[in-house]
Amino acid sequence: MRDPGLPMTLSAAFAPSARTPELIELAEELGFHRAWVFDSPAIYADIWMTLGLAAQRTSRIGVGSMIIPSLRHPVVTASAIAQLEDLAPGRVAVAAGSGFSARYALGDPTPMKWADVGEYVETLRALLRGERAVWQGDILELLHSDGYIAPRPLDVPILIAAEGPKGIATAEAVADGMCSQFESLNEAKLAFPWVTVHAYALALRDGESLRDQRVLETMGWLPALYHHVAYERNLPYAGLPNGAEWRARLDAVPERERHLAIHERHMDGLNRLDEGLVTPRVLEQLLPSAALTGSVMDIRTRFAGYRDQGVDEMMMYVPLAHAERTLHDLAEAASGITGDRALHRAARRQPA
């Protein structure tokens, strides 16, 4: 476990879009440690094109991709990582998971087996070292000549994003660290040498409340996400705000098309199933338990709590709506908590 006395770092996570490279540039200016992007090709822009553009606009900030192994052959992923490493030497990291929206939005409701994720990561590591690897019976190797991608061997850190015991066991076997949701952090995860916590936050300033329109535009997708997860994972609806009405709307959609209706605007906004059911009242009820909310000082206190537990990195999701405001607020909240430089600049030029 990391020494609790060491600084914690603050990173931003984005659903890649046309605006994401400029947002990553702003994150660097504000002192963020790393920018992560999520891989969900049916919903968002391409992770590697986004990070390549961001790498060319930045010089310090780390660039990380959250990959789903089933989406790409390991040679395709290894080649992309190696080219990104050529653009941003020493700044690249990868996190692998078993998949949620990236698979469900394609109509596949089954997460990858963790054994397959582990085998994929081991194959990826071998390819990046410049070795041959066997994948599904085929012998693989990166055959690039000089000038195409970064020369091997490459030692790019790889995390595993997991919640249950099988995922944690896979991380212990093949990864450099663990990525956990903030509400499920536990001692088993804190035992890893690199612990990244993924969370959501929304800071309120004087006169603002969780019922404001900006809050709905920025965080309305989060209550909607609870409905999506409940359906996809066959969880009960009884405790969800307006859950019965949401399910009735979904039942009216042809079954073969439901994955498309559910994941439209996933973690971005409200789709046709969600509109009118995620209200300011729902946000006021749900957000305090689903995200880090309150004043900038309240969020700073929460950050300090994670730091004191031994968390190495806070990976904070930044929705596209009001993204500049969110980045400034997060950076200001982290000032004095993290070890990054220039976070004090967050207090300047607060966007409306």
Structural class: alpha/beta
Strand content: 15-25%
At the fourth level of CATH, the homologous superfamily of the largest domain is Luciferase-like domain
- The CATH topology of the largest domain: TIM Barrel
Helix content: 25-40%
Topology as H/E string? EHEHEHEHHEEEHEHEEHHHHHEHEH
| Neighbour order of strands in the largest sheet | 1-2-3-4-7-8-9-12
**Main pleated-sheet profile:** 8 strands, parallel, barrel
Gyration radius (Cα, Å) is 20 Å
Shape: globular
Can you walk me through this structure?
This protein has 352 residues and is of the alpha/beta class. The protein has two domains: 9-202 and 292-347, Luciferase-like domain (TIM Barrel, Alpha-Beta Barrel); 221-277, no CATH class. It is 39% helix and 15% strand. It contains 14 helices and twelve strands. The strands form three sheets. Strands 1-2-3-4-7-8-9-12 form an eight-stranded parallel barrel, surrounded by six helices. Strand 3, helix 3 and strand 4 (92-96) form a beta-alpha-beta unit. The longest helix is centred in the middle third of the chain and has 15 residues, at 114-128. The relative contact order is 0.16. Residues 1-5 and 340-352 have low confidence and may be disordered.
